[in-house]
């Protein structure tokens, strides 16, 4: 397979790493590993760095990037990489209006189009994501979902690919996306060599392990809020849908429907998300025993808890602890951390949530109706 032409677009006020990272990954593929081992280099990508008008761009923190050409000079390319955008999308689109028709043109010519982090907004604004699966930074996903309802947003995923259009979530996921594309076009061995020579990991699967998301969206259903508060106070215990519905003077079926309508989650999924959120905080605090964490959040079966945690975050509890636990220089005499769990756009202390006057029991693994 011959060399592929990659165009990395530079934009003003974007995070520089979302452009520089892909440039370095594609430049290194087939070259850096070989150079480090004294072997003949076999570059796999020809990287062109372009801005809208051929002039330099500046990041929000003053880093100036100088392109080789203007996008109009790029006659042929196999792949386009769009960096992150600023958060004021209307301002971004006004300043970078020339990018949108150019992206549509390159997509029509058969190029792969990749948007990193919030750069997915340019792809969506150009209409390239309509009817396609896409991802973006977890914190902007809801706003993007409202602005672009025709897009199938999947913010729990770190990388999406749908008919030659790709997206990644988060600033440094630009490296994951770039390695994913190296593996796609050049094979696993080349991607692995590239990752090893740059001392970076192979592409991750999810960004949910990094997200701090509300357990539910904002709503005004007071009965559902009462149910949420009860779940937060009793998350370590099994909870009966029937009993909880009865307490709220509703039928179980109506309770489930109303809870899902208000929060966006089924009650059982809400409980599971609460347990995972508390477990993440315990692991961040350095909890050593998986069995103890599992029991503390309501799972007697540690293996089952491990599977739930990995499905939710994309990491095992042990991997999560290694990635996110605090450094050892924290003052050992400081008061213990008060865990904060986001719900309905608010915060609540999981320490106070552990105090519960009541308990109701159902089988832990029950799947029906939740």
What's the SSE blueprint?
Blueprint: E1 4-10, H1 17-28, H2 32-36, E2 45-51, E3 57-58, E4 64-65, E5 69-70, E6 79-82, H3 89-95, H4 99-108, E7 112-116, H5 120-125, E8 133-134, H6 141-147, E9 152-153, E10 159-162, E11 165-168, H7 173-186, H8 188-198, H9 222-233, H10 241-247, H11 252-263, H12 267-284, H13 290-296, H14 302-313, H15 317-324, E12 340-343, E13 346-349, H16 350-353
Parallel strand pairs: 1-2, 1-6, 2-5, 6-7, 7-11, 8-9
Antiparallel strand pairs: 3-4, 10-11, 12-13
Helix pairs in contact: 1-7, 7-8, 10-11, 12-15
Care to describe what's here?
With 370 residues, the chain is α/β, with parallel strands linked by helices. It folds into two domains: 4-209, Rossmann fold, CATH 3.40.50.880; 222-353, Arc Repressor Mutant, subunit A (Orthogonal Bundle), CATH 1.10.10.60. The protein has 16 helices and 13 strands. The protein has helices spanning 17-28, 32-36, 89-95, 99-108, 120-125, 141-147, 173-186, 188-198, 222-233, 241-247, 252-263, 267-284, 290-296, 302-313, 317-324, 350-353, and strands at residues 4-10, 45-51, 57-58, 64-65, 69-70, 79-82, 112-116, 133-134, 152-153, 159-162, 165-168, 340-343, 346-349. A seven-stranded mixed sheet has the order 5-2-1-6-7-11-10. Strand 8 (133-134), helix 6 (141-147) and strand 9 (152-153) form a beta-alpha-beta unit. The chain is globular and about 70 Å long. The relative contact order is 0.09.
